[in-house]
Amino acid sequence: MITAQAFSTIRAIQRSAWNDCFPGALEDWDFYVAVENAAIDDFKWRYLAVYDSGSLVAVAPAFITQYRLDTTVSGTGKRFTERLERLWPGVLQLPLYAIGSPVAERCDAGIASSVPEARRPLMITHVLKAARQDANEFGIGLVAVKDVPTHDTQWAASCRVAGFQSMPSLPSGWLTVPYGSVDAYLGSLCKSTRKDLRRKLRAPGPRVEWRHNIDDVLPQVMRLYEDTLSRADLQFERLPASYFTGILERLEKRAVCALYWVDERLVAFNLMLVDQHRLVDKFFGHDREFSREYNLYFRCWLTNVDYCIQHNIPVYECGQEGYASKLRLGCEFRGNNLFFRHRNRLVNGLLKLVKMYLRPDRSDPAMAAAISET
After folding, report:
1. Which contiguous run of DSSP H or E holds residue 349?
2. What are the record keywords, sorted (predicted)?
3. How far apart are CA 62 and CA 51, in angstroms?
4. What is the Cα–Cα distance from 169 to 291, expressed in whole angstroms?
5. Same-domain pairing of 66 and 100
6. For the chain, what is the domain count?
């Protein structure tokens, strides 16, 4: 007999059982404990668990928040929706129950290794039903599935059967690193980009320090975070200091922070997750006063590529932003889809119309190019 349950803390699910559903994941049980402990404002965490005869067979993280429909819109479209929100406060906001995580790279339903591949669609269906039932308990009409890989046809089929609509979400940047040196990587880029980067590298750069603990520089890190956040077109959540320290503490050697110094001033930081298979860029914060002079974004990029080369890491996962630069830097893009359904048929129909105008590829040509590539 298959049953499902929703929990308010991941500690209600055994660590080994959760990780068995996500083998090899960097964003594992410990990652979600650190996120939960960080107490990010405006989010309520939920954890969906499916049992077969009392044994855990599937899990998925979920969250509740007040969602702005223009979250993934940028450029001209964003300026229009911000004016609309000022004229009519709350018009673009809806209570949302979403499967996935605002701070994870992609959504998936973790399936226990004991479950045959043929039964995975059934497990996904039970996760969707559990989410709908849990959302009803909170009086929330809108249920979504955030950032499902476009190649995952089982998620797409299960969502379609459940009546969910779909639209493109932000694609994930992905750089394969088969190179023996940074110079070899530069040689793989187009001539103009290669020449530009080599010119940038000739100038003196900041000192780079790799850390697993940033407690002593936390005020400086948060200053850089707030400065970067104030300039971001796309930002779903506001991360507290405890997020950065908690990730480093909880994941130990699987999390690292690169600090960039000019003399005694911290001018940039980069929080990453890492194992022998991939380097995952979680957040890059930098001082706008020093960014142009020291080319901080590109120096950080090349530092990360060099780290992958030195540690024989084959993949650099570089997030869901900065598409124009990443296209120049040789990235591939992995497509993601957002699935959603509102239990109110009228609202659901309205959202079907709204999604035609608030798609993320409507207002950013570079993002549109990245999405079309996928």
Report:
1. helix 345-354
2. Transferase
3. 17
4. 29
5. yes
6. 2
Q: List CB contacts of 90: < 8 A, sequence separation 6 or more.
A: none
What is the rounded CA–CA span in Å between residue 157 and residue 160?
Answer: 5
For residues 134 and 222, membership in a common domain is answered with no
CATH of the domain at 368: 3.40.630.30
Yes or no: say if 95 and 142 are a contact pair by the CB < 8 Å rule: yes
> What is residue 194's three-state secondary structure?
helix
Residue 133, amino acid? Q
Q: Is 306 left (phi over 0), alpha (psi -120 to 50) or beta?
A: alpha
Are 132 and 117 within 8 A, CB to CB?
Answer: no
Q: Tokens at residue 197, please?
A: 């980067």
CB 290 within 8 A of CB 267: yes
Q: Using DSSP, state whether 29 is helix, strand or coil.
A: helix
Question: Is residue 329 a contact partner of residue 292, using CB atoms and an 8 Å limit?
Answer: no
What does the alpha-carbon distance between residue 244 and residue 218 come to, in Å, rounded to a whole number?
9
What are the tokens at 343?
């239990």
Same domain, 194 and 218: yes
Q: What is the pLDDT along the chain (374 residues), one digit of tens a residue?
A: 899 999 999 999 999 999 999 998 999 999 999 999 999 999 999 999 999 988 999 999 999 998 876 666 666 666 666 675 666 565 567 899 999 999 987 777 788 888 898 999 999 999 999 999 999 999 999 999 998 999 889 999 999 999 999 988 888 999 999 999 999 999 999 999 999 999 888 888 899 999 999 999 999 999 999 999 887 765 668 899 999 999 999 999 999 999 999 999 999 999 999 999 999 999 999 998 898 889 999 999 999 999 999 999 999 999 888 888 898 999 999 989 999 999 999 988 888 887 776 666 666 666 666 666 66
Q: Which residues contact 100 (CB under 8 A, 6 or more apart)?
A: 60, 61, 62, 63, 106, 107, 144, 145, 146, 147
Residue 238, both tokens: 């506001």
